[in-house]
Write a structure and sequence with these properties.
Layout lengths: L1 E6 L3 E7 L7 H15 L13 H17 L3 E5 L2 E5 L1 E7 L9 H18 L5 E7 L9 E7 L5 H15 L3 H7 L7 E6 L2 H12 L1 E2 L2 H10 L6 E2 L13 E3 L8 E4 L2 H13 L2 E5 L3 E6 L12 H15 L15
Parallel strand pairs: 9-10
Antiparallel strand pairs: 1-2, 1-12, 2-14, 3-4, 5-7, 5-8, 6-7, 6-11, 13-14
Helix pairs in contact: 2-6, 3-4
């Protein structure tokens, strides 16, 4: 295929994409081995409870896809109107002195909450499970959830605590404080897109080893991702993350040609973009906050991009290929 341009929310990645029809014997062997690994999923444990490097890439892709289909909105609080595009929700389990396994927390609390939110119009979301390293009784489970719909904090807390109470996680809190309503939820609205991407990746895409993170940050573009020393060293005992079906898809890509590359060169020259060259790719990062990467596409090709986005919004696409995208 030659030089390919991959469009994200606020960056464009340029890399050489090999023609799939010209596979060497070595590549064919790798494909066979990969297919064997896929077939083995039916007989081996699929979810290890740890965030792998592949999981981090797929999680980042899901976040980028969500940021591209999310539309600016407004909400009113205490008589003031605020811009809104993406929120960042933290859901904490209050079970004391017992680490809730990830598969149990998912079944009893998270999945019922997601069904409740979907009934209220939520169609696009990403969630991730983590352990609270600062808890003294045990490393308890909590969730990060981000979506593009407005969620009322009090209503969310009531529903989350209702599910916790039903699961028996609030018994200790009731004995100690005499109520079933702990401060178990938190919502942040992220309305500045330049900060939004960094904030979501920093919060949801993390590395367990700081030296590895520093090496990757130098070699590849992971400046928005931050290391957590204790993360990944202890399994959550269940599924680590997942997202809505409509954003389990590939980035928008187009073959590079003069009209596009000349626009990118002018944007770099004018200071609208920063060009960063790496071993296997070139990344064009936007500087201006009020522009998105796809706006640098020539008009006819911008229509192809919007068609790609509309397909995600309307959930019109083929079943995801496990070779390309699968959650951990």
């Amino acid at each position: 295929m030659g030089i390919t341009l991959q469009y994200r929310s606020r960056s464009i990645l340029s890399y050489y994409k090999r023609d799939k029809a010209k596979k060497s014997a070595k590549n064919i062997f790798k494909s066979i081995e990969r297919q064997r690994s896929i077939d083995a999923l039916t007989t081996h444990e699929r979810y290890t409870g740890l965030v792998t490097h592949g999981s981090q890439k797929r999680l980042t892709r899901a976040i980028e896809n969500m940021l591209q289909i999310a539309k600016p909105k407004f909400f009113t609080h205490n008589g003031k109107t605020y811009p809104f595009k993406i929120n960042f929700i933290t859901l904490t389990l209050y079970s004391f002195n017992r680490k809730v396994p990830g598969n149990e927390g998912h079944k009893k609390c998270l999945e019922p909450l997601l069904r409740w939110l979907r009934s209220k119009g939520m169609t696009c979301y990403v969630w991730k499970a983590e352990l609270q390293s600062k808890r003294k009784d045990c490393h308890q489970l909590h969730y990060h959830l981000t979506t593009d719909v407005f969620v009322d904090l009090e209503e969310l807390r009531h529903k989350w605590n209702e599910l916790q109470r039903k699961a028996g996680y609030l018994d200790y809190h009731y004995e100690k404080f005499g109520n079933w309503n702990p401060n178990s939820t938190d919502i942040h609205a992220t309305y500045k897109q330049k900060n939004m991407i960094a904030y979501l990746k920093k919060s949801m895409v993390t590395y367990s080893d700081r030296k590895k993170y520093q090496h990757l940050r130098t070699k590849y573009l992971v400046a928005a991702e931050m290391a957590k020393v204790d993360h990944n060293k202890e399994t959550v005992e269940g599924k680590v993350w997942d997202c809505s079906y409509n954003i389990k898809t590939a980035y928008f890509e187009i073959e590079a040609f003069y009209d596009i590359t000349s626009v990118l060169a002018k944007a770099v020259q004018s200071g609208e973009m920063v060009k960063k060259e790496f071993e296997r790719c070139i990344v064009y990062e936007l500087v201006k906050r009020n522009r998105n990467a796809h706006t640098y596409l020539p008009y006819p090709h911008r229509e192809f991009y919007h068609h790609h986005i509309n397909n995600m919004i309307n959930n019109q696409r083929l079943k995801p290929d496990i070779n390309a995208f699968s959650s951990s």
